[in-house]
Amino acid sequence: MSDDPRTRFAETALALVDDDPDTTVVYAEIAGQWFGDDAVTRPDRVVNVGIREQLLVDAAAGMALAGAFPIAHTFAPFLVERAYEQVKLGFGHQDVDGLLVSTGGSVDMASMGRTHQTDADVALMSAVPGFAVHVPGTADEVEQLMRRAHRVRGRHYVRVTAQQNTRSFDVDTPDLHVARPGSGALVMVAVGPVLDATLAAAETIADTTDLDPTVLYTATVRPFDGAGLRRLSGPVPDIVLVEPYLAGTSGHEVAAAVRDRPHRLLALGFGREELRRYGTPEDHIRAAGLDADGITRAVADFVGQPSAAASRPA
């Protein structure tokens, strides 16, 4: 199996079609390099609707109504933003199961311009009732999450990107993993493919301050493991949430988890400003402050401010 998360998605999708006669793949021209031959040899199981993203989602939802388990795929801005009404009504309102898998999220295709960029997809999918939202950090996690979604059924969105971590976790449950144990006073929560940069930042913080950051990792943000965050945080925590899409998307989940504790929250991610000099994905990640240096600077500034504990009256 491929080590590339995007190729692993396609390999896993076709393996699920092979293993289960009720599973179908629906795509919209994009990914023809993976699915094109199968669309010819088994057109009832692997369906190319052409460049019609709204039809893609409606066709997948129709298959679900007929008893199939569809895997619907195209680029993230087309699958979620362009076809959002179809996702909301076809899957959410009709209460049917399926697996929506995107590639190209955030800035994977930055050089192709704004039409091919999205950092709002996770926030949008989180607003549709019943969807679990997964942000795998490696190719192995892509496969595990897809196979789990296929096994348990329900509605799932899996966000696949080219960026990945050097280490995989067992992501069969949404539990937070301790990637770096620390004191619990400064807790850094890394989502999906930003873990390596977050860990590097945590080591720099530990080397240059008297803080001992705890780094937690998750590849599933809906449902969010609030109980795990409570258990692994100190009584008055500073929490840094690092997400590879719109900053603050899961901020309310973190705040709810520690709502009865004095705490501070720093939410890092992509901002709302549109960067019109497209550049490379690495350029955009750096501009968003999601590389190791950017996270280090943001956290250093954050912890240099008065803490929640210091600001409480004696």
How is the topology of this model organized?
Layout: H1 5-19, E1 23-27, H2 32-41, E2 46-48, H3 53-65, E3 69-75, H4 76-82, H5 84-93, E4 98-103, H6 121-126, E5 131-134, H7 139-152, E6 155-160, E7 177-180, E8 186-191, H8 195-208, E9 214-218, E10 220-222, H9 226-232, E11 238-246, H10 251-257, E12 264-270, H11 281-287, H12 292-303, H13 308-311
Parallel strand pairs: 1-2, 1-3, 3-4, 4-6, 5-6, 8-9, 8-11, 11-12
Antiparallel strand pairs: 5-10, 7-9
Question: TL;DR?
Answer:
The protein is an alpha/beta fold and 314 residues long. The chain contains 13 helices and twelve strands. Strand 8, helix 8 and strand 9 form a beta-alpha-beta unit.
The chain-level structural class is: alpha/beta
Radius of gyration: 20 Å
Task: Estimate nothing, just give the exact number of structural domains.
Answer: 2
Please state the overall shape, judged from the principal axes of the Cα atoms: globular
Order of helices and strands: HEHEHEHHEHEHEEEHEEHEHEHHH
> What's the arrangement of strands in the largest beta sheet?
2-1-3-4-6-5-10
The proportion of strand residues reads 15-25%
What is the fourth-level CATH superfamily of the largest domain? Thiamin diphosphate (ThDP)-binding fold, Pyr/PP domains
Oligomer state equals single chain
Count, helices: 13
CATH topology of the largest domain: Rossmann fold
Mean pLDDT: 94
Please provide the count of β strands: 12
Which residues sit in consecutive blocks of at least 5 with pLDDT less than 50?
307-314
CATH architecture label of the largest domain: 3-Layer(aba) Sandwich
